[in-house]
Amino acid sequence: MLHPGDLLEGKYRILGEIGRGGMSIVYLARNERANKTWAVKEVRRTEEAGGSLSAAGLAAETEMLRKLHHPNLPEIVDIIDGEESLLIVMDYIQGRDLQKIMDEKKAMDPSGHGALDPEAVSEWAVQLCDVLIYLHTRTPPIIYRDLKPANIMLQEDRTSASPFGSVCVIDFGTARELKECGSGDTVSLGTRGYAAPEQFGGLGESDARTDIYNLGATMYHLLTGYSPAETDYAFLPLGELRPELGGTGLEKIVARCCEPSRENRYQSADELKYDLEHRRDLDDSVIREYGKKWKWFMTAVAAAAVTAAGMLFLVTARLRVVNTTYTAWISRAEAAESVPEGREAYLEAVCLNPRDPRAYQTLAGAVEEDHLVTAAERRVIEDCLGSTADGHMRSNAEILRKADPAVFDRLMYRLGTDYFFYYENRDGYTYAARRLSEISRPSALDRRRHEDSICRSLFLIADFCAGSRQNNADSSWIGQNDAEEVWMELAGYTSEPSEAVSRCGTRRIATAMYREQARQILLNADLYRDAGISEEQMKNALSTGREFLKKYAADKDDTHYDRQMNEETAQAIDAAQFRADHLFGEEESANARREGSARKE
User: Fold this and answer.
1) What structural domains and CATH numbers belong to the chain?
2) Banded model confidence at residue 391, pLDDT cuts 50, 70, 90
3) pLDDT, tens digit, for every residue of 8-17?
């Protein structure tokens, strides 16, 4: 242990201790030759229980930091290897960590819980995205895994282009280099509340999306004052805790970062940074204003289309021109590199002849090609249907419905299932429920593939999930019968692995049903428990899912998507198993505590 006045290597004079934790102590030191202040971290060499893990983590921090050079990371300038300890000389970051800033603010105004200015938090989050982009693009990528307010310093001695100052990420004790073929983290590292589900082990190796979850949890804490470590991962919408943030882009960004499933989070720090920098474009007020302008535009387009249709009706010869032009617009849309880039061509086609289903069907096929429906692709679909932001049907879709109800119903089923199975995040439930509810004649669907019964079940599940997500601050609106009915619908397709394919019509839909059942347990296990679904029922459901995957194991002849679907389903089952164990384990512990208290009384 060092003491004030000690001189290291003849040049670093110890001034005093400034912090400690785990197996290390941090001192303030001055280089007497250069008259510059440094931080010296003393890592003690010990074989105490648990010590080897901490020592390994701090040694890893040293090796990684030596290779890193970024304005928002401390730099190592010297390493002194002693017999009893390892001394690491690094930049002294003058300032306070964000946890201390929150604590000080809470002490001054307890009613505010220490919540910080949303503009400041947003700007700091952009800087942290830059740090994550830098770390994730190293070779191999570096995953930080412990982002939290206590590990983020607001610097006082460095200039910053931001009016809110510059932040610096410290303490790399849990960081790791990403393995190319890693199957999972060997040890659960990170801080409770901020750590993503996959950091608990058994759910796959942590990756860039793990850091995105950590950043989302950190933003949640900074914006609300409520630590996720104290709320058992119950991330309420920001508007529930700070009304002024309700319906804002910032609320939506944080919610997406904190999705339990990695597939539903931002997939890269670049993507997250873009949304943070354009967060106001995601505000509900901005979207509503866009909807009003779009309504006026579509009214003008519809009026022009009606006028053109009347003229074309009078001149039969022009029908050929319309069909040729319609086909040309579809061809141009198909030639576009992406659905959003083909948006104008699709719009021209459907506005030219909204009764013709070919443009809608071509658009649906393009969206389904990669088995992923993005928010940008959904906007193109909704634009072509002529829907406003509140979901009411307009122009093109209504014309198609009246022209051919059966074709319209099949299109709604196709889009509803696309949103349900392929949408990039949980908002797909809302959009799936909306489209499936438009089907008025289930008889138009293919009964050989059980599409009529699947339609009913998916609507029930989607409507339930959309409602539970919007109202997760108060689940009392959900009756026990609602959750039980959804569970029974899923069980009807998945209870017998040997019959699942025949019940669902295709193997792909059967696999998706097992994936959905696992996701339901992961996201809504407490609702199903309250509805009377037992631990045994949930675990049996997951067991039948594993049995199905074993029976229909993906092989080289399957498509890439089907192999990916099997892998996602297996991951969802593992995550759901962890959720069920955690839920009922806590319940058993609580019961044991109550029984112990009763015996004492």
Assistant:
1) 7-91 (3.30.200.20), 95-282 (1.10.510.10), 287-403 (no CATH), 471-601 (no CATH)
2) very low
3) 888 889 999 9
